[in-house]
Amino acid sequence: MEGVYIQDFRINGLLISLASLLFLGIILLSYRLFMLGMLPIVFLFFIYILTPIYRSTVSLFIFFLVGTLLFQMVTGYYAEWDISKKMKIMLNRSSLLLIIGGLWLSILLSKQHVFLFTTLPDWKKRIVFPFHSIKLSSFLFFGLVGSATIFIPLLFLDGSSFTKSFVTYGIFFSIINAFLEEFLWRGIMLSSLKSNVSTFFAVFTTSTGFGLLHISIGIPLVMSLLFSLGGLFYAVVVLKTNSIYPAIAFHLIINLGMVFNGWIF
């Protein structure tokens, strides 16, 4: 029995180490400290070689950080272009495909079969919580109402600044960002981790990583960590509905509100 406890301790310690290396890599690469950011990748590579446990997860983290490195290098290249700030933001968000491509390559090399949560929600399903259950339609309605509260500050803004081009930009930005971020974090990362480790670890890692990656677009560290709460909410929505689409819809609404409030410009 003591041997089992020691083994569990070692496994938990390994998972904590893997998550710590992932988070450290995201932070360093987001601040464009590329040489230091390579160190977590190197450590993960050695862990992959030396430890047969959780190799699919280690591979996923390695390819995520390599994709993040490419993402930062490419977006830095865009920054030198003589184009509008709005276009640079759109290119930045579209470049998340580099990270997604890295994750997909890892899954192919690991020969994993991931669910990706791409099925439509079962509207007849009831969402079960510890002390009660609720219809899926009601659950999504309350989530929609909660997300829509981000538009409340608009009541106190001058609506004359909402030009057609600004509204068009807000819609396209929100669609691209919500779809790519959700497919990256909840579609690929959460699905892959959930099939290899505990659901708790999968949710914690993807939610925290989701928040930290916002450092790369200039959001301070503390605020980025607060964004992890949004990642936690989206993860719960995906797991409860068994579908990524409601999370994409909620994420889109939040992004749209942030643009129209002038928080993303």
Automatic annotation (TrEMBL):
InterPro entries reported in the protein's UniProt record: Rce1/LyrA-like_dom (IPR003675)
Organism in which the protein naturally occurs: Priestia iocasae
Protein known as: Membrane protease YdiL (CAAX protease family)
Entry coiled-coil feature ranges: none
GO molecular function: peptidase activity
Lineage: Bacteria, Bacillati, Bacillota, Bacilli, Bacillales
GO terms for biological process, alphabetical: proteolysis
Keyword Protease: yes
Domain CAAX prenyl protease 2/Lysostaphin resistance protein A-like: 166-256
TM regions (residue ranges): 12-29, 36-54, 60-79, 91-109, 129-157, 169-188, 208-237, 244-264
UniProt entry keywords in alphabetical sequence: Hydrolase, Membrane, Protease, Transmembrane, Transmembrane helix
Superkingdom of origin organism: Bacteria
